[in-house]
């Protein structure tokens, strides 16, 4: 079954304003060398999808810099490839409203021209706030077998590890996997099965519901498409059982990043057979560990210089850790510089942060201490 992809880069920006002031949700750094969009893109490329549209809103300069022409994902193609879709790029698209979109359904209305010109039978829709490594080829095969209008990919979340909010959707389905009901998360504890916000939609069906939504002034995909038509149209569910995390706050970003320090979680996400996670390749020198340096249970990217102690932390490219400095339970993004005798605990630094000598900063896993891009402490 031929499929194209659509990725929403902005619709969850408001949930983590600390990291999206100067970038989109899609370009938030994660795991030492990745951006959040890498997971959505890799899921599609690993499943044979070679035509992907990225729906943008604003603040997408860093996203453009990261994606480039798409060659790192094998999407630099004459036919298909990756396409950046700015909001409401034609007067026809802007018929939905005289404003930028704020919901998934409005974003889809804004790229109807792209959807109408697709020749693929189905479209895979993916948000950028989810971190997973799902085999979409299996889901596409099930979608075709079921002759489904929409297939929702679900994941099981342990509320002790992942905070859920009122945007999480809880599906109910029968033994054949057909959706019979869906509702918003209402505070259940323990392991909860939720929609991952990765959906496979038959293109002609999507065109029809978008036309109806446009004519009736509807704005919510779940409320006005899924809820309204469940039980009548052919909606199915496919379970995903690998690593799954959703970034919906600075706390959840910190917690799901720290999960990568567990080897089994790391293997489950990055080393699934024939499903690598691709990202932009950079040619940096190996990390240097100078005399007196110590590193324990940490992810440290290339290009770093370590003179102090790093424990249970994630360091992105180009980070400098000074003499006598101790970094614990922290995330230091690209080109962060720490001076000598600095102590950091549960701290997140954005890019190009400078922390001078003898500073001591401490947060907590429930409220990590965040330092914005380019700041000097």
- Which strand-content bin applies to the residues? 25-35%
CA radius of gyration: 21 Å
Helical percent range? 10-25%
* Largest sheet geometry: 7 strands, mixed
**Beta strand count:** 28
> In what order do the strands lie side by side in the largest sheet?
5-4-1-6-11-8-12
Query: Structural class, from secondary structure content?
Result: alpha/beta
User: How many domain units?
Assistant: 2
Give the helix tally.
Answer: 10
CATH superfamily of the largest domain: Spore Coat Polysaccharide Biosynthesis Protein SpsA, Chain A
Which consecutive residue ranges, at least 5 long each, have pLDDT under 50? 89-98
CATH class of the largest domain: Alpha Beta
Mean pLDDT: 90
How would you sum up the global shape?
globular
